[in-house]
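Quick illustration, no need to memorize.
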Amino acid sequence: LVMQFRDMERTARFTLFACIPGIVIPLIVYSFEQERVMQTPYIMEDTNTKEFFLKSWTPILVMFNRFGAAIFALVMLLYSRESCSRRAPMANYFAVAISNVFATLCQYTALKYITFAMQSLSKCSKIIWVMAWGFLMSGKKYTWDEYMVALIVTAGAFMFGLSGDIETGYDAEMGVSSKWGILLMMGYHIADGLTSTLQEKIFRGYRLTHYNQMLYVNLFSGFLALGLVMIKGDLMLNFFGFVTRHPACMYDIGLLIISQITAQNFIYMMIKNFGALLLATIMYSRQLLSIIFNTMWFGDPVSPLQWVSVCIVFGALFSRSEFVRRILCSKRSKRKGAETPVSKAKKGQTDIEMEGVSNRPPPLVQASSTSAVVSS
C-alpha cells in the first residue's frame, strides 16, 4: 500500500484520501445504526415504557434502503450523462433482487438474536459460499491458499460463537434463543453468495456501468420489498404508528440509508480508480473498527477467547490481501513498460480488469466488494 501510494500522482492521492474516510466512516455509522434500530429499545418519555422495532417491519427498512439507493444511482447517471436504459434482461435483475432482498432480510433480522460482533464475523465467512456458488454456476477454480483462508475464517467465526455469549438484549427481553440468529445468518450466507455470483455474471456479461447496475438492482429489490410490505395491509400502518411515537427511530433509519448510499458512492469510486484488492483491505479494516466501536458503545459482552477469534479471522483476511498484492507487484515488475494502476484507470479501465492474476477477482474480494455495493 505504501509503495502504491508513492507511485500515485497528486490527484490520485487526493482521491484515495477522500475514498478511505468516505467508505470507513459511513459504514461504521451504518453498522451502528443497524444495531441501534434492531436491538435497542425505544423509550416513551411520558410513560417510560420500552418498545422494540419489530422484526416484521424489516421489509419496510429494506424498501426504504433500496429505493433510496436507486434514486441516488439515477441522479448519478443523469449527472454523468450515462445511459439510463436497461441493458440486461429483466429476469436477470429479478433473480438478483430475490437473492439480495432475502439476504438483507436475514441480515437485519439476525441482529434481533445475535450480537453485532457475531454477525460481522459470520459475514466474513461468507467467502466460502461465494467460492461455492462460483464453482457451481461458473465452474471457477480456486487455489489452495484461498480455500485455506476461507476455512480459517469460518473456523474463527465458529470459535467466536462457541467461546462466549452471543445473545442480545432483545433475547433477554423476549425470551428467544440465539439459535434463530445462527439459522438466519446461514440463510444470509447462501443468498448473499448467490447475489455476488449473479451480479458478477450480469456485470461482465452485459458490460454495465456501476451506476446502471446499481439503479436496476436496487429498483427491482425495492419493488420486491414493497410487495412483501403490501402482503400485510396493516404493516405500514403499524410502522408509522411506531415512528410517530418514537421520532428518533425515523432519524436512525434516515441516517442508516444516507450512510449506506454515501459508502456505495465511494466504493464505486475506489473500485474505478484503485481496484477491488485495495478496497478489500479497507473493508476488512472497517469491519474490525465497527466491531470494536459497537462493542464499546453498546456494551456487548466479548470474552478474551472471543477477541482471539476476532484476531484469527481478520489476521487471515489481512494476510490473504497482502499475499495477493505481493504476487501482483512481483508479476508487474517483471513486465517491461508496465503501467501503474492509476495510469491505466485514466484510460477508462478498472483494476478488476487489469489484475493479471486471472480473469476474475479473488473470492475474498468478491465477498467484500461485489455485493457490498448492494447488500451491505
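Confidence is low (pLDDT under 50) at residues 336-362, 364-375.
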